[in-house]
Structures are given as structure tokens and as C-alpha cells.
Amino acid sequence: MGSLGWAVALSVLSAASYAAAAVAQERLAEHGQRGWSRWAVALLLTGGGVVLHVIALNFGTVAVVQALGTLTLLFALPIAAVRLQTPISRAAWIDALLTVIGLALILSLSVEPSEPRRLAPPEDRNLALITLAVVAALALAAWSGGPRMRSVLLAAAAGTAFGISSVLSKAVLAAVTDGGVRTMSPVGAIAVLVFATGGYLLSQLSYGRAGMAAPLATVSVSNPIVAATTGVVVFGEGFRFGAAGLVVIAFAAVMMTLGVIGLARHAATQSSSDDSADPATRADIPAWPQR
Description:
77% of the residues lie in helices and 1% in strands. The protein has helices spanning 3-30, 36-59, 62-68, 71-84, 90-109, 123-142, 147-179, 186-206, 213-235, 242-276, and strands spanning 110-111, 238-239. Strands 1-2 form a two-stranded antiparallel sheet.
């Protein structure tokens, strides 16, 4: 199996692990955050998703791996259908189909650069500083708007942090693979931890009074877009067939975005329906994990 095959397989397994982790976290919340075994399962599945995602970045382009990360929302459909004992709606199937078609086009046209670039100092520091400024600006702007705008801007900040965290993870892992731990950039490694943690906290803050659908969709869309754009600029990643390929990729991105927004809306609706069954646990149920 080639590099792209490994990247796809590991990314799909990562998305499945994240989806299963979300179910474990919901079960944990339903039991009042009690039970060491439930905590262990949730942490193990989340950690497994993170590890698989990072390894996948070493085999494929950032655009491919981040785009495949949206499959977590796709896996949410059958999981919710089984848990809530409700059929999957026609609209949800259409959104799933749009997402899969968009992903297939991106996978078929994405190519690794002939000579992969490495993110070396001071490039990693500059990228980290620019990202920090963008995330801070979005977070500060969030508090000047209404509840819905606040949720969307905080989610956009979280998606930006997650996307750049993946880009830096690929750079750190590539350096370790090529030259060992000594060649790893401390700035890059620290930035990965800061942006991953900050993205998680910002995504949790985004789920406020405006509901879950808008911030979940914003994080799910902004994350791969930021990562893919940065991957093209930083690592020289590209797509086949020149300008024609870019047009197809843009079409695929629009299709996938519409599908992801729809899947996020379905996930939010299902979560709200599940919460209404037991109001005591409503505030404790976490959002679907991102990366």
C-alpha cells in the first residue's frame, strides 16, 4: 500500500476513533462523570484518534488528512441512529453523499510535492506567531458581537488553531523521522501543544447560547481549509491538472463544505434530542472532538 493508501486508512481509523470517543464521553457525562473505566475508555479512544491522525500526516498531504477528518461527522450518523433508534433521514444521506464525493475528488487530485519542504526555524516561529495573532484577533472580536456571532468567531478561532496544529505536527514528525529527536524544533513542538489545547478550549467556549450546529459546522469547515491552504504555502503541496484541477478542487471543496455543514446540523439536532431525554445531563454532554 502506497503513502496515500496509508494516509487514507489511518485517517479513516482516526475519525472512527474520535467518533467512538465522543460516544464514550457522552456515556461518561450521562453517568455524572463517574467511573474510572469510562474515563479510561474515553481517554484511550481520544488518544488513539490523535496518534492515528498525527501518523497519517506523515504519509499524506495536510489537505487530504484534514479533509478526511470530517468523516467523524459521517460516522456520527449510524452511531446516533443506533443509540437513538431513529432512521437516518434522506437529507442526512444527501449531506453524507456530498461529503464523500467532495472527499473523493480531493483524494484523486491531491499530490505530494516532488521535493518535500521542511519547516525550519525561523519559519515555524513565524507561522506560530501569525497564527497566534489571528486566533487572538478572532477571539477578541467574538466578544463584541451577539451570541451567534460570538459562537461562530470562537469556532473559527478554534478551527484555525486546530488546522495549524496539524501543519506543525506534520513538520515536527517529518523532522523526527528524518534526523531524530535532536532535529525537532522545540518551538514547533510547543506550538503544537499550545494550539491543540487552545483550539479545544475555544471550541468548548463556542458552544454557548447560539446552539451547537453553527459552531460545529464552523470548526469542521475552517479546520481543513486553514490546514490545506497552509499546506500549499508552507509545504508546496498541490493538485493535478493545473488550473483545471484547481477548479475541480474548488467545486469539491464547496460540495464537501455543504455536506459537512449539513452533517454538523444533523449531529447538533441529534445531540439536542438526546439531551432532552434527560435535562439533568444537558450541560455536561461534550461536543464531537476535533483535531
